[in-house]
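Its record is quoted verbatim for completeness.
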Amino acid sequence: MQWSKWVLASVALLVAAPAHGQSFRESESFITLFAKIDLTCILKTWRIKGVSVCVLSGEPTPCVIVENAYPVGILETVKAPFASHIKEAAVIGKALERTASGLGAAPRGGSSHTSDSSPGSGLHFSESRAFMFVPNLDVGLPIAVPPITGYGVAYFSEIDPFTYRNPLLESILKAPRIAAGLPSCDTQWRVALNDCAGNWGSFYPRLGFANSPSNAIAAYLVALRAGRIASDPIGHVVVGSYPYEPRTGHYLQPVRPSLRICGKIGDPLILKVERGAGSEGQEQLLIHFGIFEACKPCWGARLVEARAP
C-alpha cells in the first residue's frame, strides 16, 4: 500500500535528530513538509462511528460514518521579525517587511520583547504564522477529507502588530471567552467552551505573549492562537483564509526543531515532557491536524468539536 512507504520514510526521518542549537530558518519548503506528514496520525485516529441513511434521488441510501485526523495547516513561531522556517514563506516575509518599512509601519521584532526562558517561569513572546496546508493524501482507507483543500498564506503576526501585542481590543471583542477562561486551565480545562488548550494554557486573549514553565508549550500556545486568529479574524489583520480552527483534543505534529509524531493538543503528558525545555523550543514549526467525520455519499467531511485531550 502507498501509505506504508510514507510510514517507513517517517520512521527514518524521526531517527535523524538535529544538533542542539542548530538554526532551522529557511530549512524547509512546502514540498519537504509534504514528505514529513505523519500519516500514522491519520491511520491511528481512523475509526468507524456508526451507520446512517439518507435519501438521494428519492432512494434510501446507507452510509458508514468514519472519523480521522487530517492535516489542515502549518503553524510556526519565530523570534526574528518576518523570518520563517519555510523558504517560500521567508520570501513572502521579506516582501511584507519591505512594504511595512515603506509605510513606516515595520513592527518591532520578537527580540525586542522580554522572555524569561528559565525552567519553571517566564513570559514568552514570539512572532507567529499560519498557512493553510490541506494536501490530497491516499492512505488506502475510506477517510474523511476536508472539503476545502489547497495551500496558502493565512497570517503573519508582524502585519497585525496592535492587536497581537495589545490585549485591549481582544478584551472587548472576546470578553466572554476571556472571562470564561479566568478559572485556571491547570485545573479546569473547559473543553465545552474551547477556551483552554487542555492544561497547556488559554487560547484567549489571542496574543503573542504566553506564560508557561516550558518554552515549547508557550510556543505551541502562540502558534495555536495564530491559527485561531486566521480562522476567526475579527479585530485582526490577516492575509488569507485558514478554514479549520485549531481545537483542544485535535493534533499537532512538531517538525522543527525536531521531527516527531503527532500528539493531542492539550495533552497533559506532553506538558510533562516539555516542561523546562531549553531555548531550542522557542521557535517551532508544526503541522496542524483537525479531526473530521464524514458519511459518504450522504454528507461530506466536517470538523468535529473540541474534546478532552
User: Anything to note?
Assistant: The chain has one domain: 2-303. The chain has a mean pLDDT of 83.
